[in-house]
Amino acid sequence: MDDDNDPLRPRPTQDTRGFYMLPQAPMDSGYYVYGNLYGKSAKGAYQYPHPIMMTAILRVAMEWQTRDKRRIGIGDISLAGGGKPPDHDSHMSGLDVDVRPLRKDGLEQQVFWWDREYDKEGTEKLIELFRTFAPVVLVLFNGPDIPFVKRAKNHDHHFHVKLRG
After folding, report:
1. What does the pLDDT read at residue 47?
2. Are 118 and 104 in contact (CB under 8 A)?
3. Whose C-alpha in 59, 65, 99, 152 is 20 to 30 A from the C-alpha of 24?
4. Which residues contact 89 (CB under 8 A, 6 or more apart)?
5. 81 three-state secondary structure
6. Got the DSSP string for 39-71?
7. 103 with 126: CB under 8 angstroms?
8. Is residue 52 a contact partner of residue 95, using CB atoms and an 8 Å limit?
9. For 77-89, how does the pLDDT look when each residue is reduced to its tens digit (9 = 90+)?
10. Taking all residues of the chain, what is their mean pLDDT, rounded to a whole number?
11. What are phi and psi of 97, to 5 degrees?
């Protein structure tokens, strides 16, 4: 018997748009997943990318693995079917993703850009990989002095990448 009273179960592998759930950090993928929905772990419910975003995430993670042993943190993308999420004004098209800045200690936890463990150089390289391998139109993040990035409220512990569809 499943005691998980999660309102988002079952989580389909493929949603009504034909988008597939991002694989939930398979071994040697170069990324891990994180995120909450309705105050609980989202467990993939918030990770249905447009095929362009899916390709971008997998390509950037693969490229990152050739440069660094740390995995990148992939957060909110979109809900199955593209409904309006309770905590964002975007993330409905599958072309937006939240990504954690890198930590110097390699822990797979959030870090704010002002924390001692924040790795500005690594985060800047990661953002540049998205810009190199994906049709990026916007990156939101409050960490200072990173080219192309715009500041936005509540973007101190993740950066938001928006792709052209």
Report:
1. 93
2. yes
3. 152
4. none
5. helix
6. TEE-TTTTB---HHHHHHHHHHHHHHHTT-SSP
7. no
8. yes
9. 999 898 887 777 7
10. 91
11. -145, 145
